[in-house]
């Protein structure tokens, strides 16, 4: 009896620590993107005119659509956590599936967006880019770096959520044990948070 | 018992948070399209910060987490703000 209690107690501690570990990782992510935001801010103050001109090239409509897609997906993943806590396993899986679909929509929009830029030969290293003013090269460089790094995070988040979906199905994540689910949701919200800043800075402000 | 005393956020609250975030996004787009001059960037960043705070508080459950975690998150954001300020002081006065 006392052994069972002991095990239960240490598992509880483990869950708390596991979540704190995830937050520590998220802090490093903040500084990864934060550094790029600082570069963006300095370059913007240095090449205001060029940034203004280059930003008009971006499609604000696709950016806005992707913002809504990510915000809704953030809600569905938060709801899936509610569902698993209430032992509504089927609903939890359905909500994660919807989140994955939305991640797919986001990536598809990005595919069309990047595709259009490549058609215009606006990509790092192209002839057209070489002949642009220095500030515009900076803008498109930062645009591809920041959205590309963010897209990579969407991809990783999608893989993580797929693993969580499978673990819910096999019963490894359940009403009692859902630390991985919680941490996966935290990661997905971080992806959303970064986009909340990327969208106005790159697409809206011209 | 793992996650025994975890707070459960209701579906309704999650939905309300989404609505607020969507309204704030619409306001951001409108504010920027109105071209308020020098205030545009400041307004956009302020609105983005408000949205961040809402996501952290409700979607990421910080409101229901223990004090240590909340202090950690607050401290890290403060550190980040200090780094930005120092970088800009360095950039403008060098």
At the third CATH level, what is the topology name of chain A?
A: Four Helix Bundle (Hemerythrin (Met), subunit A)
What is the CATH architecture assignment of chain A?
Answer: Up-down Bundle
Low-confidence stretches of chain B: none
Total domain modules of chain B: 2
Class computed from helices, strands and strand pairing of chain A: mainly alpha
Shape of chain B: flat
Give structural notes.
The complex is a heterodimer of chains A (206) and B (94). Chain A is mainly α and 206 residues long. Chain A has a single domain (26-204), classed as Up-down Bundle (Four Helix Bundle (Hemerythrin (Met), subunit A)). Chain A is 85% helix and 0% strand. Chain A has helices spanning 2-46, 48-55, 60-85, 89-119, 127-130, 134-169, 179-204. Mean pLDDT of chain A is 91; it is low at 1-5. Chain B is mainly α and 94 residues long. Chain B contains 3 helices and no strands. Chain B has helices at 11-33, 39-59, 67-92. Chain B is flat and about 50 Å long. In chain B, α1 (11-33) packs antiparallel against α2. Chain B folds into 2 domains: 10-60; 66-94. The longest helix of chain B is centred in the last third of the chain and has 26 residues, at 67-92. Chains A and B meet through α1, α3 and α7 of A and α1, α2 and α3 of B.
Describe the structure concisely.
The complex is a heterodimer of chains A (206) and B (94). Chain A is mainly alpha-helical and 206 residues long.
What labels describe this entry?
heterodimer, A: 206 residues, mainly alpha, Four Helix Bundle (Hemerythrin (Met), subunit A), disordered N terminus, B: 94 residues
Secondary-structure map:
The complex is a heterodimer of chains A (206) and B (94).
Chain A: H1 2-46, H2 48-55, H3 60-85, H4 89-119, H5 127-130, H6 134-169, H7 179-204
Helix pairs in contact in A: 1-6, 1-7, 2-6, 3-4, 3-7, 4-6, 6-7
Chain B: H1 11-33, H2 39-59, H3 67-92
Helix pairs in contact in B: 1-2
